[in-house]
Write a structure and sequence with these properties.
Elements (H helix, E strand, L loop, with lengths): L2 H10 L2 H12 L11 E3 L3 E6 L11 E6 L2 E7 L2 E10 L6 H27 L5 H6 L10 E7 L11 H5 L21 E4 L13 H9 L4 H10 L1 H4 L2 E2 H10 L17 E2 L1 H26 L4 H8 L3 H22 L1
Parallel strand pairs: 5-6, 6-7
Antiparallel strand pairs: 1-4, 2-3, 4-5, 8-9
Length: 328
């Protein structure tokens, strides 16, 4: 597992934030899932499939998969498994991948129920023994969200049928559609979420930053409008944000105070923005100097003070002289 995936998984493993994501996506922000009702589960899913007696597969085989984040939700007597898969890139086989994960979770439940039966000594019928599932047994639901934080729109299939029957491709097997159970993914396209206000934790701030990540000026406006939060951002959120905004790279330039649990994102972003403006201005001055324009003319055209333009011209001249010296 890569560093970025570890950071994002750890960030979403915080129960308040995980519950907020689920409530916002599944219940339009209603506080149905409470953090205290969640229990973190082992992300590893193991299943042993025994072979049939009398066959070469009598020893069976094992299947192992890893969830990004998984929690058990217990609301009174009701149970559910809530899981999250984080994606930076489009995964064109995502319907099959989540189907396998969810299927293994259901299979695990069946095996656990069967073990409980053996421990209590309950009698079972021949059919129940064959099924490893009693007639009165019930499964609890497994719900997986796919949190996609890539820059380009998701253009992969969102269900199994989309992988079998490509849209617009007159498929001779189309008549089979009604006999093939479909499997749909619950996709959360972070950059293109419509109503971010349904989220109530710092997830709302981060989702807005993802939404504005292609526009630095817009991010600065948003950070300024929410200064009280961004002045005391915790390090886990900062690190997750650095992953979510990775396509822009500029956030990586922020230096992290060593040994501190929080940082002032406002000041850091302002410094980077000012550095960016100066660099852009330096490029403009360089181009105009190459055209033979005077410092006074450049200052007037760029609407900057004569002192600023003069200082930049000196820096450019010094850099050019140093480059020529190094080439000798």
């Amino acid at each position: 597992m890569g560093r970025d995936n570890v950071i994002v998984n750890r960030w979403f493993s915080q129960k308040e934030r995980f519950a907020d994501l689920m409530n916002g996506c599944l219940f339009q922000g209603q506080q149905i899932i409470l953090p205290e009702q969640l229990e973190k589960l082992d992300r590893e899913t193991d299943l042993f499939i025994p072979g049939k007696p009398g066959t070469e597969m009598i020893q069976g085989k094992g299947i192992q998969r890893y969830r990004d984040v998984a929690m058990r939700w217990e609301d009174r007597a009701e149970l559910a498994i809530l899981a999250l898969e984080n994606q930076e890139r489009v995964h064109y086989a995502m319907p099959v991948r989540t189907m396998i994960y969810d299927g293994l979770s259901y299979a695990e439940q069946i095996e656990e129920n069967w073990k409980d039966r053996k421990d209590t000594g309950d009698r079972t019928s021949r059919d129940e023994f064959l099924s490893h599932f009693r007639k009165t047994d019930k499964l609890y639901p497994v719900i997986t969200l796919v949190f996609y934080y890539g820059s380009r729109p998701w253009d992969g299939s969102r269900d199994l049928h989309g992988m079998i029957f490509p849209e617009g491709a007159g498929c001779e097997r189309e008549g089979l559609r009604k006999y093939i159970p479909n499997y749909r993914i619950n996709l959360v396209d972070a950059e293109r979420l419509q109503d971010i206000n349904v989220f109530q934790t710092d997830l709302q701030y981060v989702l807005n930053m993802i939404k504005y990540r292609q526009k630095k000026e817009k991010i600065l406006e948003y950070v300024e409008a929410n200064r009280s939060y961004f002045q005391r951002m915790n390090m886990d959120t900062y690190q997750a944000l650095s992953v979510f905004l990775n396509s822009e790279k500029w956030l990586e330039e922020i230096s992290v105070p060593e040994g501190k649990g929080e940082m002032d994102m406002c000041k850091a972003l302002e410094d980077i923005y000012e550095d960016g403006k100066i660099e852009k201005l330096r490029e403009q001055v360089s181009k105009k100097l190459q055209k033979g324009k005077s410092l006074e003319t450049i200052a007037e055209e760029l609407e900057e003070s004569a002192e600023t333009i003069s200082q930049l011209a000196k820096e450019l001249s010094a850099a050019e002289a140093a480059a020529e010296k190094n080439n000798l």
